[in-house]
């Protein structure tokens, strides 16, 4: 690794759905195939994946999604279009209003 590459290394923390050891292995395999990824640390219990390397987080998310693994930035960037979404659980107990999504 050259000095220029070392300076460009960044760490990206992603939230990925990991249910079992197979999912964990699959995520690690997908990420290590991406050029510029140096290390991955996967916490299966919380679904937290920490990736270090010279790669953009959008490229990581795109590659994981393409391979069937839902991924997003850990506690970070929210989609502005999703800001207006809210669940429809108002204080009534009727079954028809539970878990519906309201778009404003």
From TrEMBL:
Main location: membrane
A GO cellular-component term linked to this record: membrane
Stretches with biased composition (Basic and acidic residues): 90-104
PROSITE patterns cross-referenced by the UniProt entry: HMA_2
Keywords, ordered alphabetically: Lipoprotein, Metal-binding, Methylation, Prenylation
Membrane topology type: Peripheral membrane protein
Pfam families given in the database record: HMA
HMA domain span: 9-72
A biological-process GO annotation: plant-type hypersensitive response
CDD domains: HMA (cd00371)
Sequence segments annotated as region (Disordered): 81-104
GO molecular function: metal ion binding
Similarity field: Belongs to the HIPP family.
Name this protein carries in UniProt: HMA domain-containing protein
Source organism: Genlisea aurea
